[in-house]
Write a structure and sequence with these properties.
This protein is mainly beta and about 70 residues long. It is built from 1 helix and 6 strands, in the order ββββββα. The chain has a two-stranded antiparallel ribbon with strand order 1-2. Strands 3-4 form a two-stranded antiparallel ribbon. A two-stranded antiparallel sheet has the order 5-6.
């Protein structure tokens, strides 16, 4: 039996104030604004209230100030 790989598979996360919890395994999440794939080890910006990830600080700032 072959073991399935998490590569190229999006993860489902629960974003919290100081981190996130993996709900469904994968190797990346998708930026809510740009659609860019963000590897989990590079994920630094997200919104707890909106439960979405952002690729860069600039994108996160724009998304959070637009509401």
């Amino acid at each position: 039996m072959l073991m399935s790989s998490n590569s190229a598979r999006p993860a489902r996360l629960h974003y919290m104030a100081n981190g996130f919890r993996v709900l469904s395994s994968g190797d990346h999440v998708v930026c809510a604004v740009s659609g860019e794939k963000i590897p989990l080890d590079a994920l630094r910006y997200w919104s707890v209230a909106e439960q979405e990830a952002y690729a860069t600080a600039e994108i996160a700032t724009k998304a959070m100030t637009a509401t």
